[in-house]
Amino acid sequence: MKYVIDACNLIFHDTVLHETLESRGFPAVRALLVRILTRFAYAERLDEIVAVFDGSEKAAHRPRSEVSADGKVRLIFANPRDQADREIVELVQGTRQRGVITVVTNDRYILREVKAAGAHTLGSGAFLKRIRCSVHRAQDPMRGEDPRKFHGLPPREVDEWMKIFGFEP
Predict the structure, then answer these.
(1) 10-42: string of b/e by CB count within 10 Å (b at 16+)?
(2) Contact 72, 46 (CB under 8 A)
(3) What are the backbone angles phi and psi of residue 160, rounded to the nearest 5°?
(4) Is residue 17 in some structural domain?
(5) Which domain holds residue 76?
(6) Exposed, middle or buried by CB within 10 Å (0-12, 13-18, 19+), for 121?
(7) What is the secondary structure of 55-107 as a DSSP string?
(8) What are the φ/ψ torsions at residue 76 (nearest 5 degrees)?
(9) Residue 119 and residue 101 in contact, taking contact as beta carbons nearer than 8 Å
(10) Residues 2-38 pLDDT 10s
(11) Model-level pTM greater than 0.70?
(12) Which of 65, 64, 67 has its CA nearest to residue 37?
């Protein structure tokens, strides 16, 4: 599965991301989003997550695409004269295996167009919840199980079972 994310839509849907944008600016929220998406990509064993941002005239000189240091998150910046919406739709329509793409947004135009193209969709709130659950699961390798379960039986109990089955310890 591959995720294509309407980054600005996601940022404005999450309180922490939105507050980071307001207090520290776009570079800080972009870095935070990349860290969050990278953790999610590792937790879910994904090859790549694509985050599409609206372009701006100020950043017109910057590259339109960049990959995070670990290669898990690719950032795409829409042409300053276009919106990320069009970029996302074109990205999905230009892919042969549309059924393996999940587009994350709450934007009705994008949802309608990518569904028509055969991609899966997921709302920003549901995606944020999926991220939290996935990262939490990854932090708990025993998945909530009692750690004693994986250490085997105590020697005294092994001796008891050996006697029950007719083996003398």
Answers:
(1) bbebbeebeebbeeeeeeebbebbbebbbbbbe
(2) yes
(3) -60, -45
(4) yes
(5) 2-164
(6) middle
(7) --STTTTS-SEEE-TTSSEEEEE--TTS-HHHHHHHHHHT-S-GGGEEEE---
(8) -120, 130
(9) yes
(10) 999 999 999 999 999 999 999 999 889 999 999 999 9
(11) yes
(12) 67
- Is 169 within a domain? no
Domain count, the chain: 1
Tokens of 139: 């932090």
For residue range 116-134, list pLDDT tens digits in order: 999 999 999 999 999 998 8
Burial class (CB in 10 A: 0-12, 13-18, 19+), 98: middle
CA–CA separation, 48 vs 81, rounded Å?
27
The CATH number assigned to the domain holding 147 equals: 3.40.50
